[in-house]
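Most newcomers find our protein records easier to grasp once they have seen one. A record pairs a protein's sequence with a compact description of its fold. An example says more than a description, so a record of this kind follows:
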Amino acid sequence: GGGYGRGAGAAATLMADALPRALGAKNADGSMASEASEGGEYGPALVAFTGGTAFNGVVRELMELTSRVTHVLPVSDNGGSTAEIIRVLGGPAVGDLRSRCLRLSDESTREARAVKGLLAHRLHATDSGLAKAEWYRIQEGDHELWEGISEPYADIIRSFLIYFHSRVTAAKTPVKFDFVNGSVGNFFFAGARMFFRSMEAAIFLYSRVSRIPTESVVVPNIVLEENVRVALGAELMNGEYIRGQNDISHPAPDPKKFKKNSDGGGGGGDSGGDDGEDD
């Protein structure tokens, strides 16, 4: 539609102007903002094949030893806000990649912390209307999360958020995109992936914008054609199948097999706990 064309065109123009300035931005001491962290090249070189959540708890500690780590992550996550992006736009999941990039992000300056705070932010967790209203404030640049972020960085981040917005609002789906509990970092990541038509390019951009050490590398565990969806499946010993990473890691009780104790106690059918969402 015409609205989509105007939104995407404006975003592309903003990106063309802001991208060279953002990637070439300098720190206060004159060094390049995207340079590798001091001393990182002297640590041991490691490759980590991990999931998207558990290993995040040791990333910062590992960086004390070395930042020369290649993080290989899955693109099959189908829970939380990632599931909503996949439902409307398709493509591989970005949640686990974004989550790891966030853990590796620079925190040494006020601006770096502001960028990380923006990309780590989630919209309202339960109210779709409040989440959508907040999202409009963020992508229009009127939210307090932008405070402390210089114009080059704000322009490049906003341009990909605007591009993402133009795609989800133009998508022809029976149910419109729901922004509830949405991750701003996921939206930025998805917008970059669609704009460049490349997951690797989106990872590179996210890494530079969030000032991840250049010797730290995040890669998807599968090289994919554009917009291919990846799903995990499991075959149980009884011959049944479970499809989807979220259903495998957080299985719901089978209502046909649920039995409640006569005394009102726990009956073995409670799925319990939170979902530990990193989507």
The CA atoms of residues 54 and 79 lie 16 Å apart. The two ends are 30 Å apart (CA to CA).
